[in-house]
């Protein structure tokens, strides 16, 4: 998690799933979180989660985000 913290500080991005609720590896019994979605700080996160899948040893991570820029 130290790497994620350093990345967000240096890039100005924020972690869309900034909690330990969603673990992503191994996909058959997730107990670690190593997959992330990074977004600009002026975007709003509506929802985030993982998808159960056997396609990989990682669970896919998804997020619904919104831009706060005017139309």
Question: Could you explain the architecture of this structure?
Answer:
This protein has 71 residues and is of the alpha+beta class. Helices cover 14% and strands 30% of the residues. The chain has 1 helix and 4 strands, in the order αββββ. It has one helix at 2-11; strands at residues 13-15, 38-40, 43-50, 61-67. It is flat. The mean pLDDT is 88.
Give the N-terminus to C-terminus distance in angstroms: 35 Å
| Percentage of residues in DSSP E strands | 25-35%
Low-confidence stretches: none
What structural class do the secondary elements suggest? alpha+beta
- Spell out the helices and strands N to C: HEEEE
Q: What is the helix content? A: 10-25%
Strand order of the largest sheet: 1-2
Shape: flat
Overall pLDDT confidence = 88
Give me the number of helical elements: 1
| Overall radius of gyration | 13 Å
Largest sheet: 2 strands, antiparallel
Number of strands: 4
